[in-house]
Amino acid sequence: MSRRNTVGYLAAFAVIGMTVVPLLFVVLGGFRTTAQINASPAGLPGPFVWDNYISVATSPQFWRLLGNSMLIAVIATTLAVVLGSMAAFALSRYAFKGREAFYTLFTLGLLFPLGVATLPLYLWLRELNLLENPLGVAIPEAAFSLPVTVVILRPFMNAIPGELEDAALLDGAAKLDFFWRILLPLSRPALITVSVLAFVTSWNFYLLPLLVFNDSTNFTLPLGVAMFQSEHTQDTAKVLAFTALSMIPALTFFVLAERRMVGGLTGSVKG
């Protein structure tokens, strides 16, 4: 094994350790009591205590937060993928003045921090009466997911041979027919990639829901975790169980689509 490979493997193990160890601490901590955690923070469950997970899983509050997060994530992902695929189609298959400038604008959107837009975004949502409304979170989340969606989809669509489009047009298909019936099915790996990224990004958003929601019945899971932690500051084990269960949907979605994500990113890079 070469020295370069050794360094690469060591770096990979370091990254995995920094990612997995905190997750294991959270998950296993939920199977312990707070007294056990205080006595030995890095210890293992012995015996396993299921009460924390059962208490959280049977709580109406947890399922309400889960439903709120799911609704907002589905809306934001749908908007980002639909609008992003249309923009990527126009930027990849149409030649018009300023096309590269528009694409550069989307690329620069990757560098735009949410914190800069906090005040104007709040004022805009208030004028549109979208405060305490799931759309007030979903629409801005979709907007912040658009740049990465377009940046991934455009080169993927651009790599699809133009002969397919010419053949479809000769068969009497319109541009939109080609888009819906041929281009989108062929772009499925990239669409899955951007869908997963948009969903996970929406699921993990904290600042936007905090900006829009004051009523705790509208809170998403990230806000719910913070609220639950403040309400149960003395019960560390139950807080860890709540946090672990709140991570499951996004992690499951990511794991199930991981292989297709890799294919989508590979196709985008080649494009």
Automatic annotation (TrEMBL):
Q: What's a BP term from Gene Ontology annotated to this protein?
A: transmembrane transport
ABC transmembrane type-1 domain location, by residue? 66-257
Q: Does the keyword Iron apply?
A: no
- What main location does UniProt list? membrane
Q: Name one GO cellular component term.
A: plasma membrane
* UniProt keywords, alphabetically: Cell membrane, Membrane, Transmembrane, Transmembrane helix, Transport
Q: Which domain of life is it from?
A: Bacteria
> A Pfam family this protein belongs to?
BPD_transp_1
Instruction: Extract the InterPro entries matched here.
Output: MetI-like (IPR000515), MetI-like_sf (IPR035906)
List localization entries: Cell membrane
Q: What is this protein called?
A: Raffinose/stachyose/melibiose transport system permease protein
Q: Which organism is it from?
A: Lentzea flaviverrucosa
